[in-house]
Amino acid sequence: MAKLTLAQLERHLFAAADILRGTMDASEYKDYIFGLLFLKRANDEFEAARDQIKEQAAKELGLAGEMLDGYLEQEAPYRERGVLFVPKEARWTWVASGPGHNINEARLRPALQALEGQNSKLKGLFDHLDFNRIGGSGAASSAAKLADQRLKLLIDHFGRVRLRTEDFEFPDLIGAAYEYLIKEFADSAGRKGGEFYTPRAVVRMMVELLGPKQGTRIYDPCVGSGGMLIHAKEYVEERGGDTSDMFFAGQDSNSGSWIMSTMNMVLHGVHRFDLSTGDTLAEPAHVPKSEADRYDGVLSNPPFSIDYSLEDFPHRAGRAAYGATSERGKADLMFLQHMLWETKQEGPGGVVITVMPHGVLFRGGGERDIRAELIERDAIEAVIGLAPNLFYGTGIPACILVLRPPGKKAAHDARREGRVLFINADREFHAERAQNVLLPEHAEKIVSTFHRYKDVPGFSRAVSREELRENDYNLNIRRYVDNAPPPEPQDVRAHLVGGVPRVEIEAKKELLDSYGLSLGDLFVERDPVDPEYVDFPPEEARPDAGRLAELARPREEVLWGEFDEWWKAEAGHLERVAATPERLADLSAAERKAALMDVRGALIESFVEQLGGVGLLDEYALAGAVAGWWHEAKYDLLALSENGFAGVLDGWVENVDTLLAPEKDPKTHKLRKRTAAERRQAYDHKVVAAIAPDFLEELAAAEEEKAELDARWKELNAEPSRDGEGDGAGAEDGGADEENQGEVVLSAEQQAELVRVKKERAKTGARIKRLEAEFWFPWPPSSGTPKLDEEPPRLVRARKALDAEGERRVVLKLLRDDLAGKLNGHVLHKRQELITIFRMWVGKYAVSLGAIRKAREESVAKLDAFLREAGYAV
Fold this sequence. Notes:
Layout: H1 6-20, H2 26-61, H3 65-72, H4 76-80, H5 92-96, H6 103-116, H7 140-159, H8 173-189, H9 200-210, E1 217-220, H10 227-238, E2 247-252, H11 255-267, E3 273-277, E4 297-300, H12 316-319, H13 332-342, E5 351-357, H14 366-376, E6 380-385, E7 398-403, H15 409-412, E8 419-424, E9 430-431, E10 436-437, H16 440-452, E11 460-464, H17 465-470, H18 477-480, H19 492-497, E12 500-501, H20 502-507, H21 509-514, H22 519-522, E13 533-534, H23 545-577, H24 581-586, H25 589-612, H26 619-660, E14 663-664, E15 671-672, H27 676-683, H28 686-691, H29 693-716, H30 748-775, H31 794-800, H32 804-845, H33 849-869
Parallel strand pairs: 1-2, 1-4, 2-3, 4-5, 6-8
Antiparallel strand pairs: 5-7, 6-7, 8-11, 9-10, 12-13, 14-15
Helix pairs in contact: 1-2, 1-7, 1-8, 2-8, 2-11, 9-10, 9-16, 16-26, 23-25, 23-32, 25-26, 26-27, 26-32, 29-30
């Protein structure tokens, strides 16, 4: 049985959401999707454990018949395996076999209530779910009928895919899919999405700043969907840590967030957690009674600038130890003090990493006094400015504050005592249509700079407490790290009489040196040589974008040569973590994941070292290229460590197969053939070009021929072609092309040409259809057994043609190509810098005032000459 891929599961879950779309918005129907997903997953894991327990009990305990059946209904064997026991009235077979009416009351509500009863942490988790609401707000009878119809569709839809861990291409596939769903619902909810969702790239960066370890306690006072806690767990797992002894706690005033975060914990296999509902400031649920109750790490993104009541602020002596703010719209630093109060105060102490609005850095009043206390008591470790429009619900830029209890910075790193590191990362983002995005390469730069605690011009600076005191405790980031480009110099003499100032060229020496370019490659010396100015070459010889690209090519080719050498030397790291029977037998899943993470660190280090020697790209661009590639290939690499090269390749082919297979409409259950755009998306998958390039070549040639014939057809007709998608549909019978020709009159030769083109179009359209039909059709056939002379589709044949060496070669080549694509993005960006700076010089100094006057004088003289020739006195 083929392993279920993340892409397949994501499409399955999104199709479930399609059933409910239109009756309510995403912020409402997400809970119903989450509820059914949770119920189905619990059932499938229970069934998997039941099969194992049954086999073990029969073999080791000798149980059979009624005794075995009774043993299988005991909770203890499931609890020992960390699996939630599912009572009979909550089992999927019972839910799915219910009557077609009153499904909520007859089946779903009893099932969810029974499941809640098995774990105290789940109590009340499904109380808010009234599945009858999915019927809309019409008349009671019609709404109930519609609710039953949609519930039946949802139950049938979830029943089509088994969600056992053993079926997944990597163990935590269900957790990754749940995170995908949360993000999709946050996107749909727009501003409301910010109530429960912090962009995962920001969360991941915060976790890497924290660097949690095995056995730590992590807390989030505004837990939302629980993403920060989950990513802390994953961080430890990726490094081979055992997370079973970690403890996670959180609170949120939104009951919907508590539901999402609780499900998130369970679906990610977290057993030690305590999540609560309530106002963290007014009713803190996690009051430390001793040092053991405090936390090693606090991660949070609290709501910005909300009101609070100082009167309703318990434990004020500890939770407001640094001061109090005004109550209207100024709760930010009260949240921050609460977090510091929750961290461990003894030993190395705990760490707070929280998102904050920029206003807390410089506003006066009570906030200024709190900042002063925090700085004087050396509690602030770093202030990190982020780009605007990264978060849902607000376009304003935010910052991240890193704090430790007083006196604990020195214990962690003596260099940090009495200093605050400012990082100005407001330019580290990728602009997308609706929102800016923090890419892995941006996060890598921020995290590496923080851990090194180093000064980087225009990016970071460690500032002493004395300087902060002199600035009245103002933490405005630009005051200490101004990354605004300096004003563009304007040389008056060059504007007046021409030339390019050498001093401006010298200011860009680092850029020119990175390409090995000298002044003579771009400019010409004056005669005699002017020590302050050079000239542009004549306009016909002046470098344009193409010429600059040529000048850049030699150094870029050196870089690519080093990349090839690096890959040859380092690809072996990936081969060594690929799953083999021996690795699967000798190493646990945690050890395999840790080995994979070690590879990431080794690859970044060697990549920066080898390619950095070229001098073209800096360490941040090089490390960012690998970090971005690793992030995008993460699930493929996890599949590699669990299923080997064959498993990765099978997953890619399965995704292509899923994109080409007719899609079952979740509402009508009818099959819908894939559109031309969907088929093209499937053919564009990188694995198709790797294993079936001949198919793509034949298809491209046929489509090109078809396009030429279509163009000729339109030339010969007054009306455009009407053959739909341009893939030959309707071409066999000519469709309606001969109709509605109007008054167009064709010559005998044109009529003959029209007939020929019509026949050729039909043939070409048929060839395209045949190629596509041969490439994919359902396999194995519905009968299950192919006929003697029946061949599988070309996609399947291409996959089967690869032996173990072929699988290794294809997977490594595609991974290499993906990394090369990331590197190429940085190379192009660097080259554009060169082109931009030269164009800027041309724009400023190519035409001087003297040249303008000379051209004007020449034009006046020419006009005067014309006038004299015409007999007019000047």
